[in-house]
Give the backbone structure.
Amino acid sequence: MKTQALAALIVLSSATFAAAAPAMQNVYARSGTTLDGKWHVIVDPYENGAYNYRRDPLDAAPNPTSGYFLDRRPRDRTDLVEYDFDASPTLMVPGDWNSQDDKLFWYEGTVWYRTRFDFTASPGMERQFLHFGAANYQADVYLNGAKLGRHVGGFTQFEYEVTGKLKPAGNSVVVKVDNTRHADAVPTVNTDWWNYGGLTRDVTLVETPRSFIRDYEVRLAPARAGAAARLALSVQLDGASGPTPVTVDIPEAGVRARLMTDAAGSARLEVPVRKLTFWSPQQPKLYEVRLSSGKDLVVDRAGFRRIEVRGNQVLLNGAPVFLRGISLHEENPLRGGRAYSEEDARLLLGWARELGCNFVRLAHYPHNEHMARVADELGLMLWEEIPVYWTIAWDNADTLANAKDQLTALIDRDRNRASVIVWSVANETPVSEPRTRFLKSLVDAARALDATRLVSAAMEVHVDPEDNNHRIVDDPFGAYTDLLSFNQYIGWYDGLPDKLDRIRWTFAYDKPVVISEFGADALQGMHGDALTRFSEEYQQDLYRRTLAMLSKIPQWRGTTPWILVDFRSPRRPLPVIQDGWNRKGLIGENGTKKKAFFVLQDFYRKDADSHAGGK
């Protein structure tokens, strides 16, 4: 299609578009058609497709008088044509634009995506939904020239119902994706990772019956003294007309339950289970779960386990556990760009397993759904996080609502993953009363949505003004979390590695201490002595001394050093050494392991579990 301007394809009609509904659970188990592949793109730094030359938003002009605004085909060869999707270049979806086109490597702004598809409904399927795994950061979605809605947040799923809006042939989906940073956004303008833009995860046209299982939860119910294990089941139907039966089958566990929904489509039930193997890193047992209602059937694989804190211990299935962890970003260094596929997840989490981990921190934002599902299979416990990072607009109500929306979407998506044991609400946020109120609100929201997992954040540490070797952890936010987690970089940003030998700690809370970050930069292949900055030997020595220091903390229960693999960051410009990479990875951008990798691996194999219940 050609018209007088890029704006013409996407101009909104006078009808009001709807906000995206909460995305359905387990989208990969649904019937549907992938829209992944090559999408045509138009780079639009001035947003000519969204505003006129006076910077008036086109969405606010329901009755345009200028031909520039009209959404129509050219009438004849004399019409002015200033864009052509069909002749424009393509980018792969899922994927980020930065790593696919050198011209877009540093680009921040708007890119318009367009794909076409034909559609024939599958037998028994009466409703259709356009589902996006994620788009960074703001996405405006249009179908056949009409706007479906806008989604804000770069790492969470969203969808729109498109029932009755599809044609047999030539459907057009256009998405305006804008990764511009904003001071009141989540995250804000300043981060330490690459701001990859684009449709970074799968796009799927999902089909369902008229009434379908939109959401469900299958988990262990709270333990009762002397009672057998029980499963807590809950379902939410969409489109049911009155109370409707739902069946939940877990054949291997001998569970078959029939629930009857209320008028709103909700149902809850607890059922006893006699034969159950608890999920753990040593035995990551997953059960097939089959949920059916009318014409709808959803199949999942779920594990069942308990995670709790008792005093200053972390208990998995009632036994003390030491969290042998590592942090990682959602980035595939070998291919370059955002990680998004199951293969990416197996690469990154496979490296974590090789390191000897039973725990991984997915920093600093929700990662793609494959990560938690593969972690379920591999027996890796997860810390999942939202990007409340550094200096958020603490007093801004919209910013708080944005953060809660992202937290809710993450919990909704991954609540059935046994691997997820920690919801994290922040990283390295400076202490203030507005900040603590903001974070407390997120903790309350997390507990209301899911009371079965731990809640934490990477908190602040301060130096005793009378003793430079004394570190104090008394962040007031620590009163509200299950774990006392914090980042520390003694020996890198704070003195040299020998300083670690003299450090002592004081904690204001008798809670499990989990060091959420420590580390040092090292360029893979660069060598020197233990005092040569950016050498593998410096990083190796720092790891040895840090682990020795942490081992003296009586309530130390785990760590996620920073970080598994080198990752891109605009904050790291040092030529030859960094070149736009954060080099704190234990594995280089080429996939080669550094010396410190084997220090941590040896500790995890030999010494780590001695700290599970304290010395």
In short: The first helix runs from residue 6 to 10. The domain at 308-611 is CATH 3.20.20.80 (TIM Barrel).
